[in-house]
Amino acid sequence: MTGREKFFGDGVSAAERSVLSALEGAQGRMTETVLDWSAMNTGSANLDGLERMAGILKTSFSALGAEPALLDPVPVETIDGAGEVRTIRRGRNLHLSVRTQAPVQVLLTGHMDTVFPKDDAFQAATWREPGVLNGPGVADMKGGLQVMLEALKALEASPWAERLGYQVVINSDEEVSSIGSVALLQDAASRAHVGLVYEPATTPEGVLAGARKGLAAFTLVARGVSAHAGRDHASGRNAVVAAADFAVRAAALSGAREGLTINVGRIEGGGPTNVVPDLALCRLEARVATHEDRHWVEAELARLAAAVGADHRLTLELNGRFTRPPKPLDASTQALFEAVAACGAQLGQPISWKPTGGCCDGNNLAEAGLPVVDTLGVRGGLIHSRDEFLITESLVERAQLSALLLMRLAAGTIPCPPRIGAAA
Ligand SMILES: [Zn+2]
């Protein structure tokens, strides 16, 4: 008995044990691969880096016996500093389908992009201490992609593989709200029974994210009237003041519903102080706990834009929407979490979950009706900062957790939730 095997409980069958034990040997190659992948910059805007990474992932995932496709993203619209709509390009997204006719269908997703741009100072991984790797994307989520891949390889080596088909989607714009890939994610979700997402656990101890808030990003464009600040101040309509007024009133909505937060991130506009500015932008985000609150805050912000516009006698145009719908824990998702926890318990991995204000592709998969556990990646922490770290022993640990989950979904020991739309 070696490594983690000593933690395996009696509930783990001999056949499961044999597959899981084989994963023990993967620690070295998983760590090496994470080091290689971390060294490749894949900031969400670094299209060259993303294309290189997509090619490498395509080769790696073809080990599962089918050829992944690299699909073009949907063009993404954004509002530039002049208040005009601009189209930006994202990287390609990987899609793999295996055994689409099998009775149980699982969707596994992850992202290849990171929050660190090409010119960021944080580009290379270093060992913080033995077993703790500090590097860009090591936890979020190049480590998670390794976990997903090794778990799927383990499933393929198991006696139950034929009963379970799956799709893998690895997108290139998760860190910028997945707008270019959400259609692909939701289409894949429509053919699956269960969603597994490889975001890192929420704590170094491995706590999963349960319910997630929904997230919307808005840009308010204020268009006023320019005038000489000395000669003709009264005929000006100050767009900066209107945008600021909107910002203050919008921010005051925080807490108006339980869990509702409004964060004003940026105000831009204006110029010399002797000119009444005719253009200003206010960029803000809203997070909500429920679908009702989502509709409430959308209506409230629209009402505010109209009211502030009327008060300042200028035009306010509110752009934006919820790109991450709220993900409350429904019964089928709760059951899936309990199944994951039961697998964890038999592997000596205590699993718990808690709600979070953070969002990910799990929000969008849940909106498509899929029960989703979206933090099945590695243990680590301080993601989105230069102190991001990965606890490397969690690579094998989490691969074993997912492998056991997949084997049991295939075998039917974990009941397969009804497919979306299949229930009345
Ligand atoms: Zn992530």
TrEMBL record:
The active site is at D113, E174. InterPro entries: Bact_exopeptidase_dim_dom, Pept_M20_glutamate_carboxypep, Peptidase_M20, Peptidase_M20_dimer, Peptidase_M20A. It holds the Pfam family Peptidase_M20. The keyword Magnesium does not apply. Residues 211-309 form the Peptidase M20 dimerisation domain. Keywords: Hydrolase, Metal-binding. GO terms for molecular function: hydrolase activity; metal ion binding. PANTHER family: ACETYLORNITHINE DEACETYLASE (PTHR43808), BLL0789 PROTEIN (PTHR43808:SF9). This is Hydrolase.
